[in-house]
């Protein structure tokens, strides 16, 4: 353990020097809904700033709807936005919505102004991705391709009435093993399992689909009607016949287990869904996580606060939303899974990734400097 701690510390020192020169899940617990409506108990001195970018071009996106609770704003011509009058909190959900793009969502920290009235460093750069496929068809016809099979005549509108007419469909398919796929994955790599427990997971793919009427309003499925999703082969040596399906709740910022997908003879996974939305194929992790804990310091040995840290595995990310005033961060990592470190200084708006792989931490172990 001492040798491993020494290795980790040396890695961190190199990584943090690189960061500061400007380069560049957990054990189960009972779920309690802690989503916050920031419209109440307002603290006027809390703000959140950021920029939304297109995943393909890397350029800022205008007219993106950004929301935290009941607070909403639209990005400017370069993708920048400011949300003010927010409640200070260690964790809240920010959502991003733009026509033709996959809904974005992530968790952030909101801090109040400092004593000298300097704005808090609640800054975020977030990328969203345009849908892979967009098309229109008559509601009396089924929607079908290699990834989805939606029966005909199953839609209800926002009033709950049966809908007939033209349907506008959007479809997104993400490969979570890629850097882009992990960055676009909504929320955290954890969710509420079928037992009501918060559980970390590794994910094998995401499919998001939406349907709208001629007025641009969302369409849902009639009660008792199911659509079918087909996920690509997961590409692991150990075949798993059944993997749980989860959908993302954008209001709560949580994944929720609902149903499962079954392996087919060609290696794909087929599962039935009760409503449109963002779905993923996730394997819950039942073992306790490893804990990675350390400090960020500058070259003079002074602690650096307000740096966001990410531990990035092959198909998961675990985050510490912000280092504290002592530069301390703590990340829960999937046990025995190798990972990389990535960090972003959202005060000075730059980030870096440490290129070397950090060996996996055993379940229940804590590695710290």
Describe this structure in words.
A hairpin with a 3-residue loop joins strand 10 (143-144) and strand 11 (148-150). The longest helix has 19 residues, at 2-20. The strands form 6 sheets. This protein has a 5-stranded mixed beta barrel with strand order 14-15-21-18-19. The protein is mainly beta and 369 residues long. It has helices at 2-20, 179-184; strands at residues 29-30, 46-54, 65-68, 71-74, 80-86, 89-97, 104-110, 123-128, 133-138, 143-144, 148-150, 155-156, 166-174, 190-192, 197-212, 220-221, 227-231, 242-249, 254-263, 269-273, 277-284, 290-295, 307-312, 317-320, 328-333, 340-345, 350-353, 366-368. The chain has 2 helices and 28 strands. The chain is 7% helix and 44% strand. Among the domains are: 37-130, Carboxypeptidase-like, regulatory domain (Immunoglobulin-like, Sandwich), CATH 2.60.40.1120; 133-284, Chondroitinase Ac, Chain A, domain 3.
């Amino acid at each position: 353990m001492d040798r491993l701690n020494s290795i980790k510390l040396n890695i961190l020192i190199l990584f943090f020097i690189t960061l500061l020169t400007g380069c560049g899940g957990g054990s189960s617990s009972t779920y309690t809904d802690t989503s916050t409506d920031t419209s109440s108990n307002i603290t006027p001195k809390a703000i959140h700033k950021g920029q939304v970018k297109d995943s393909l071009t890397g350029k800022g996106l205008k007219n993106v709807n950004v929301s935290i609770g009941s607070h909403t704003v639209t990005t400017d011509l370069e993708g920048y936005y400011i949300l003010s009058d927010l409640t200070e909190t260690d964790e809240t959900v920010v959502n991003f919505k733009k026509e033709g793009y996959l809904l974005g969502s992530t968790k952030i920290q909101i801090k109040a102004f400092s004593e000298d009235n300097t704005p808090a460093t609640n800054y975020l750069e977030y990328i969203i991705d345009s849908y892979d496929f967009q098309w229109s068809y008559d509601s009396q016809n089924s929607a079908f391709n290699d990834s989805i099979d939606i029966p005909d005549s199953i839609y209800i509108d926002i009033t709950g009435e049966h809908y007939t007419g033209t349907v506008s469909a959007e479809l997104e398919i993400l490969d979570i093993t890629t850097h882009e796929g992990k960055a676009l994955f909504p929320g955290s790599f954890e969710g509420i399992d079928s037992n009501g427990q918060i559980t970390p997971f590794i994910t094998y793919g995401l499919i998001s689909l939406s349907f709208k009427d001629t007025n641009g309003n969302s369409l849902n499925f009639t009660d008792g009607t199911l659509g079918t999703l087909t996920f690509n082969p997961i590409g692991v040596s150990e075949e798993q016949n059944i993997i749980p399906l989860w959908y993302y709740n954008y209001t709560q910022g949580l994944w929720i287990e609902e149903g499962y997908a079954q392996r087919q003879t060609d290696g794909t996974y087929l599962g039935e869904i009760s409503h449109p939305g963002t779905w993923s194929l996730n394997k819950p992790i039942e073992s306790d996580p490893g804990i990675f804990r350390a400090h960020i310091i500058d070259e003079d040995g002074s602690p650096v606060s307000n740096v966001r840290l990410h531990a990035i595995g092959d198909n998961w990310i675990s985050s510490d939303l912000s280092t504290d005033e002592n530069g301390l961060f703590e990340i829960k990592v999937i046990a025995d899974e190798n990972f990389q470190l990535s960090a972003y200084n959202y005060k000075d708006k730059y980030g870096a990734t440490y290129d070397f792989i950090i060996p996996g931490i055993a379940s229940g172990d804590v590695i710290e400097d």
